[in-house]
Amino acid sequence: MKALLPLAFLALTAAAEAPALPPAQEAAARALMHELRCLVCQHQSIADSDADMAADMRAVVRERIAAGETPEQVKSYLVSRYGDYVTFDPPKTGANLVLWAAPLLFLAIGAVAVWRLYRRKGA
Asked: Which of 103, 82, 79, 81 lies closest to 91 in space, CA to CA?
């Protein structure tokens, strides 16, 4: 009897998470879930995360796909709600551009420092 209790709980939580979708919509929802970052785990997609927030986000994705929104519309909604960081591939514009360019900038600064150090020792 005790072994059945966890299974019943899992069945109830899975059923309460989101409405059942037709196969095509479920496939689109799952593909989108793999593109979205769990804001709690940060290095997992919402499809792979066990966090409560990821479960809430999966429910939102399924509800909006069921309502007829495209995956891009759902993604735009989640980005407007949680910011660019919710996607694994944030846009390379504005403040994010600094983050994308920083490694190259630091590499260039390091190369100039090494070059000046060796030039000074050789002179």
From this structure: 79
Helix, strand, coil shares of the chain, percent, nearest 5, are 70, 5, 30
H/E stretch holding 34: helix 23-35
Kindly give, in sequence order, each residue whose CB lies less than 8 Å from that of residue 54, ignoring residues fewer than 6 positions away.
Answer: 38, 40, 41, 44, 46
| Look-up of token digits 């070059």 | 115
Share of the chain above pLDDT 70, in %: 83
Per-residue pLDDT tens for 87-123? 988 777 777 777 778 899 999 999 999 999 988 876 5
Write the single-letter amino acid at 82: Y
Query: Residue 59 corresponds to which tokens in the numbers above?
Result: 């429910």
Separation between Cα atoms, residue 49 and residue 44, nearest integer Å: 6
Query: Can you name the residues that pair with 45 across neighbouring β-strands?
Result: 37
Residue 16, token pair as written in the block: 């309460």
* CA proximity to 65, closest of 41, 106, 32, 108: 32
